[in-house]
Amino acid sequence: MTHKIKNLNIGIIGVGTVGESVVKILEENREIIRARAGVNLVVKKGVVKNPNKPRGVNIPLSTDIDDIIYDPQIDVVVELMGGVDTAYIVAKKTLEHKKSLVTANKAMLAYHRYELQEIAGATPIGFEASVCGGIPIIKALKDGLSANHILGLKGILNGTSNYILTQMIQNNQDFHTALLKAQQLGYAEADPSLDINGGDAGHKLLILASLAYGIDAKPQDILIEGIESISTDDIEFANEFGYAIKLLGIAKKQNNEIELRVHPTMIAKDKMIAKIEGVMNGISVIGDRVGETLYYGAGAGGEATASAVISDLIEIARGKSSLMLGFERSPQINLKPKANICSRYYIRLAVDDKSGVLAQIASILTQNAISISTFLQKEIKQKNTAKILFSTHTTTEYAIKNAIDDLKKLDSILSEPYLIRIEDE
Ligand SMILES: NC(=O)c1ccc[n+]([C@@H]2O[C@H](COP(=O)([O-])OP(=O)(O)OC[C@H]3O[C@@H](n4cnc5c(N)ncnc54)[C@H](OP(=O)(O)O)[C@@H]3O)[C@@H](O)[C@H]2O)c1
Q1: Are 152 and 91 contained in the same domain?
Q2: Which residues, listed in sequence order, are joined to residue 257 by a DSSP beta bridge?
Q3: Best mutation site among 81, 93, 161, 207 for ligand 1, i.e. most ligand atoms within 8 A of its Cβ?
Q4: CB of 62 closer than 6 A to ligand 1?
Q5: 356: left (phi over 0), alpha (psi -120 to 50) or beta
Q6: What separation in Å is there between the alpha carbon of 86 and the centre of ligand 1?
Q7: Is-contact 330 214, C-beta < 8 A?
Q8: Which of 163, 238, 307, 410 is deepest in the core (most CB within 10 A)?
Q9: Chain centroid to CA 195: how far?
Q10: Where are the alpha helices (DSSP H) in 190-334?
C-alpha cells in the first residue's frame, strides 16, 4: 500500500518581495520541503493590491482578503502585506476563523502581539521572519534556550542602518552620502524612516523581549533613537578611543526590571557584535545557564525572509508548532523607567571658542554629578568655533538629560548637543 501524501494549503496575502520568494522557494525546493514537512506545501491563492502588476510568479490572484481567509480549502494564511492596521485585521480574522497564521510583520506584532495571542488560543502563529529575516532567533528563544533565564540580549537588528554606519566608518562618508548609496543599492526604501530612526529595530526588540521576558511593552514605552544625527566627528572620536558605532537593540534584566532601548551605541571594536558589517544582522543572547550565544546572518531580503516563513509553514505542517510561548505576560516583570537607565555617554558640543566656556560646561556636569572620562577638542573652520567631544563615567538618563538641558541654556553652546551611549559590557 502506498502512503498518500497530504497537502497543506496556503493562501498568501501580499505577493511582493517576500511573498514572491516564498512561492518560488516552495516550487524550486519542493522535494526537500515535502520530505521535511511530511506533506506537500501548496500555494492555492495570493491576494495583492494590483493584480495587473507584472510578477515573477504565476499563482491565482485576488484583491479580496476574504477570498483567502474564508476559503475552506486554505489551511494557513501567510500575511506578507506589511503595514499595521489592515494587517492586524487580516491576522485577527484569520485566527478568529481558527486558521493558522504566519507573518513577517514586525510592525504589526510590535503593537498587537498580545491581543493576537489571546485570540489565537491554541491556533499556531508563526513569526520567525519578523525578526532578522533569515536568522532563526525566534526558534532559538522559544526552543533552544528555553531552559534559561535570559539575562540580556543585544543585537544589530536592522541591516540598512548597519550598512550606512559601515559606510560611514570604513569610507569616511557622511550620513547623507551613505544613505544615498544604500538607496541606490536597494538596501533602503524610498522612505527609509523606520530603518534609520530606530523604529524597525525597536519593533524587533519588543518581539524578542516578549519571548525572553513576557513583557508587554509598545514602541512608545521604550527609548528609541536613530542614526540620522551621527557625524564624522563622532566616528572619529569613536575610532580614537577604540569603539565602533552600531545601532543596537538592547534588553537587560536586573531583578524584576527589564530595560529596553534602541540607539546608536559606541561598542569596543574587538567585540563580536562590533565586527558585524554591511547589511548583516547579529544578536548576542546571554542565558543564565548556557552563557553567551551568538546568531549572525542576513536580516532581510526576499529569499532570507522567505526561508524563515517556510520554516514556520513546515513546523505547522508537522503539527509541532508551539504556541507563542513567552507572549504570556509575566506579572512579576516591569519595564525599567527610561530615566533610571544607566550608561556611559559620549557628548558632542559646538561651542564659542573663548575662555571660560570649558569651566561653564564642567560646572554644569558637576552640578548633575557627572564626571568626564575622556576628552577631545577640535577646531572648526568657522571662526571662533570649537568642537568639544567627551565621554562620561556611568550616570543615569535622568542626570544626562538634565545636564543637556542646562547646557542648551548657555549662550556659548552654538548647536544642539548630541549624545551617543557607550556600552562597555
Ligand atoms: N523585504 C524584506 O526584506 C523583509 C524582511 C523582513 C520582513 N519583511 C516584512 O514582510 C512583509 C512584506 O514585505 P515585502 O518587502 O514583501 O513588501 P512588498 O514588496 O511591498 O509587498 C507587499 C505586498 O502586499 C500587497 N498589498 C499591500 N497592501 C495590500 C492590501 N491592502 N490589499 C492587498 N494586498 C496588499 C502588495 O500588492 P501589490 O504587489 O499589488 O502592490 C504586495 O504584493 C512586511 O511586513 C515586511 O516588514 C520584509
Answers
A1: no
A2: 254, 334
A3: 81
A4: no
A5: left
A6: 12
A7: yes
A8: 238
A9: 9
A10: 193-196, 199-213, 232-240, 302-318
To 5 degrees, how large is the angle CA 55–CA 57–CA 63?
Answer: 65
Residue 143: give its domain's CATH number: 3.30.360.10
Tell me the pLDDT tens digit for each residue of 286-322.
999 999 999 999 998 999 999 999 999 999 999 876 6
45 counts as catalytic: no
Question: Is residue 276 located within the same domain as residue 217?
Answer: yes
Rounded-to-integer distance, Cα 303 and Cα 284, Å: 23
| Cβ 283 vs Cβ 299: under 8 Å | no
Residue 5 scores a pLDDT above 70: no
Distance 40 CA to ligand 1 centre (A): 25
Coil, strand or helix: which one is 299?
coil
Ligand 1 atom index nearest CA of 13: 34
User: Strands, E, within 20-126: which ranges?
Assistant: 40-47, 61-62, 76-79, 100-103, 125-126
Query: Per-residue pLDDT tens for 220-265?
Result: 999 999 999 999 999 999 999 999 999 999 999 999 999 999 999 9
> Do 57 and 87 have their domain in common?
yes
Asked whether residue 418 is domain-assigned, the answer is yes
Q: Which of these is catalytic: 93, 204, 252, 336? A: 204
Largest Cα separation within the chain, whole Å, is 94
Domain presence at residue 412: yes
pLDDT of the residue at 4 = 62
Is the same domain home to 204 and 353?
no
Which residue type sits at 179?
L
> What separation in Å is there between the alpha carbon of 19 and the centre of ligand 1?
7
Cell of 254: 536586573
